[in-house]
Every structure is written in C-alpha cells, then in structure tokens.
Design goal:
single chain, 187 residues, eleven-stranded antiparallel β-sheet, 17% helix
C-alpha cells in the first residue's frame, strides 16, 4: 500500500508541477532574462591579431522572441557580427550572421551548429553543421560553446586538431549603454 501511495504521489507531482525543465530550456530562459541589455567583454584566449586587440568589445542581447535570440557583437566600430540563437525541439542552434556596413550579407555568413543534446542550464555546445562544412571547409572541425551563469556570458570557439582557441567573456553584472544598431539593422 505504501508503494502505491508513493507512486501516486509522484505521478500527481509530475501532473501538477510538470516535469523538470531540460538544460536547454533553462539556458534559454536564463538568456532571455538578459534581453535588451548590453555588456562589455574581454578576450581571454586567442585573437592575437589586430582584429580584437585594444578594441572595446560589447554584446547586446538586442532581440528576443519565443524561439530566436539575436546578439550583436561589436568589436570597436565594427558592427558586422550577430550571434543568432534559435530554440527548437529542445535543442539550440547557433548561427553567425556577418554583414557589410551597407547591410548586405558577407560571403562567409550563417555558419554554426546545433547542440546534439539539451546540455546544461549553464553550458551549450555547438559542433559545426554541414552548412558550415560546405561554406568554410576549414571550419568543419569547429566547436563553439557558450557558458552562462549569474555573473558572465562566455563565447568560445575551438578548432579541433589545431591550436585555434578563442574565448571572450562578458561581465553580465554590469550593463553598459546600449549601442546603436548593428550593420543591416534599423533602430
């Protein structure tokens, strides 16, 4: 009788409170809480070239809806980069939208990958997808990952089989003024 009551209690709890949210869903909801905010970051690994050296790095969680989050990433005056995250079927997709100053798409754009599992509430991995392999053959071994916790958002890139590693970390405890629209967007 005790076992029956325990099973009934457990089933009632699931029906009343729902099943626990997946790591992907928790990550998504935590990122959406930052929508509209901008944060300054710094390179922690890689980027020894002049593209990032001595430049102000700002991410702006600019546009959020139920299934898409767009995060422009500014490097100094360069407003060409936007990370586009999409949530579907308990997986998150990361794409890199690169634009020219006139708003037209760069020839290397819309590359990225989709998580292979729901991961955790603080960490999502994105191995390169087939579109990326076709567009940028050298990026076939790319793995991107994003970490998100109470104090920071970290974007990372590792090219497996090489020394290529890039990490930029943003302090999400200190919002900065919102920048103007990225290239190809309107305010």
């Amino acid at each position: 009788m005790k076992k029956i009551l325990l099973v009934c209690s457990l089933l009632c709890s699931i029906l009343i409170f729902g099943q626990e949210k997946s790591g992907a869903k928790q990550f998504w909801e935590n990122l959406q809480k930052q929508c509209g905010k901008s944060f300054e970051g710094e390179v922690k690994e890689g980027a020894a070239n002049d593209t990032f050296r001595d430049k102000k790095l700002v991410m702006h969680i600019r546009n959020c809806d139920e299934n898409t989050i767009r995060i422009p990433f500014f490097v100094g005056e360069d407003k060409s980069r936007t990370w586009v995250l999409a949530y579907k079927n308990d997986r998150i997709q990361l794409k890199h939208d690169h634009r020219h100053e006139d708003g037209s798409e760069d020839k290397a754009t819309q590359y990225g990958g989709t998580t292979s599992n729901s991961s955790t509430s603080t960490l999502q991995f994105f191995p390169a997808d087939q579109q990326t392999c076709d567009l940028i053959p050298n990026a076939a071994a790319n793995v991107w990952w994003i970490t998100l916790d109470e104090t920071s958002f970290t974007y990372n890139l590792r090219r497996i089989g090489s020394d290529r590693l890039f990490t930029v970390k943003f302090d999400i405890t200190k919002a900065v003024p919102t920048p103007s629209a990225p290239w190809g967007w309107k305010d």
